Amino acid sequence: MSEIEELINRIEELRLNMIQAKEGRNYTDPEVIATSQALDDVLDKYQEMIMKKAEQDDRDRALGVGL
């Protein structure tokens, strides 16, 4: 499994945790905040990886790599 696939799985897991943590709580509840922050961290990593891959793909196309 690729690192991006692992992040997608982790995002889904944390998203479900967020839904469960929110049940019966306010958004300012410490558990909800902690769960939200964990999800944010993984989403940031995912976005960074996707952006780096897009930049690499652009460089490869410019150099004619993989044609």
TrEMBL record:
<dbReference type="InterPro" id="IPR037208">
    <property type="entry name" value="Spo0E-like_sf"/>
</dbReference>
<dbReference type="GO" id="GO:0043937">
    <property type="term" value="P:regulation of sporulation"/>
</dbReference>
<dbReference type="InterPro" id="IPR036638">
    <property type="entry name" value="HLH_DNA-bd_sf"/>
</dbReference>
<protein>
    <submittedName>
        <fullName>Aspartyl-phosphate phosphatase Spo0E family protein</fullName>
    </submittedName>
</protein>
<dbReference type="Pfam" id="PF09388">
    <property type="entry name" value="SpoOE-like"/>
</dbReference>
<dbReference type="InterPro" id="IPR018540">
    <property type="entry name" value="Spo0E-like"/>
</dbReference>
<dbReference type="GO" id="GO:0046983">
    <property type="term" value="F:protein dimerization activity"/>
</dbReference>
